[in-house]
Design a protein that fits this description.
The two termini are 22 Å apart. The protein contains seven helices and 18 strands. By secondary structure, it is an alpha+beta fold. It catalyses: cholesterol + NADPH + O2 + H(+) = 7-dehydrocholesterol + NADP(+) + 2 H2O; cholesterol + NADH + O2 + H(+) = 7-dehydrocholesterol + NAD(+) + 2 H2O. Its main location: membrane. InterPro entries: Cholesterol_7-desaturase, KshA-like_C, Rieske_2Fe-2S, Rieske_2Fe-2S_sf.
């Protein structure tokens, strides 16, 4: 797709106004639309919030999962019920060394999910936990979801963190659809109207499970180059480069559907400043902590401007797009690969 400018597009492509038939109705029942749970990698939690030998319950795509971390640091996600007699391992289950121990009869399961020990010394049954495909990348525990029970067929990248600050973290539970998070990246007009960016120009590049948007704009009078990479519908990495300031601000945005119409929105903000990255490590941490405090506040304020829309938005299957929204049509087509085949055709 050729680049387009939201500031200039209407002057280049004239818009012909067509009288649409009026819409009136007397029936009731209109409301938000739930979509099927999407496939792909989705965040189940932040790495630093799951300590060694800790067990947690998390809501994930219409069910509960149990997360735990062994003494050596291995993170696991499992379906919550013990294969012995069905006890919920998130209520009273504990980690002893490398084993998860059931609270009901003391059966112990190794990191591969196999039952290896009983509390009374009896021969352990041939039993195993139902483990979920899990990967831990850049401070996040991700769980793979697929409606046909397929294993992962694409992987998440590892970010280059050299010279970047420590992260600042946020977590919100919102009404609506997690798809709205990545759809934001495909909507340049809203960056201008809702967030106040000026002279917005965008391009996109599609590569199977990954969609990349590049954008040039001005904010607070400063030129900024942005790149937003979406890895499926649950993970987006946005980088804003202010070349004159030698600053790169990075946000890892994470959306996970937890019920049909509610989702977890998580974010991690980090920064890299060329001059600061050359300082001794201890001084670098102090300077970054002060700078990131203000930049993180600005990022949170900006994303919260979307919250009222996200919480109350209704999914429109055939949106009536206007000039400057070509990216949105491409994005909607791209998203269909992450849903049960045919559901969003």
């Amino acid at each position: 797709m050729d680049a387009f400018s939201t500031a200039e597009q209407d002057s280049v492509v004239p818009i012909t106004l067509i009288s649409a038939p009026a819409h009136k109705r007397s029936a009731t029942g209109i409301g938000q639309i739930a979509l099927p749970y999407p496939n792909g990698w989705f965040a189940a939690g932040f790495s630093h919030q799951l300590l060694a030998e800790q067990v947690q319950r998390v809501s994930f795509m219409g069910q509960e999962l149990v997360l735990y971390r062994t003494a050596s640091g291995i993170a696991r996600a499992i379906d919550p019920y013990c294969p012995h007699l069905g006890a919920h391992l998130g209520y009273g289950g504990k980690v002893v060394g490398e084993e998860l121990v059931c609270p009901f009869h003391g059966l112990a399961f190794n990191p591969d999910g196999l039952c290896v020990r009983t509390a009374g010394g009896q021969k352990p049954p041939v039993a195993a936990l139902t483990q979920r495909y899990t990967t831990e990348v850049d401070g996040v525990i991700f769980v793979w979801r697929h409606q046909d029970d397929l294993p992962p067929y694409w992987q998440l990248p590892v970010l280059d963190r050299a010279g970047f600050s420590q992260g600042r973290y946020e977590n919100f539970v919102l009404q609506g659809l997690c798809q709205d998070m990545t759809e934001n990246s495909a909507d340049p007009l809203h960056f201008a109207y809702l967030h106040g960016l000026q002279e917005v120009v965008t391009r996109h590049q599609e590569d199977r499970h990954q969609m990349t948007y590049t954008m040039q704009a001005k904010v607070f009078g400063q030129a900024v180059n942005m790149k937003m990479r979406c890895f499926g519908l649950g993970y987006a990495v946005g980088e804003a480069e202010f070349a004159r300031l030698g600053l790169i601000a990075r946000t890892q945005a994470l959306g996970t559907q937890i019920t049909p119409l509610s989702w977890d929105f998580r974010m991690i903000d980090t920064i890299r400043v060329e001059r600061v990255s050359r300082l001794p490590h201890r001084l670098q941490r102090l300077v970054y902590a002060a700078l990131l405090l203000y930049i993180h506040r600005w990022f949170v304020k900006t994303v919260k401007e979307d919250f009222d829309v996200w919480r109350n938005r209704r999914f429109v299957e055939q949106p009536k797009l206007i000039a400057g929204e070509g990216n949105m049509a491409v994005y909607r087509r791209w998203t269909t690969q992450f849903y049960p085949q045919g559901d969003l055709e």
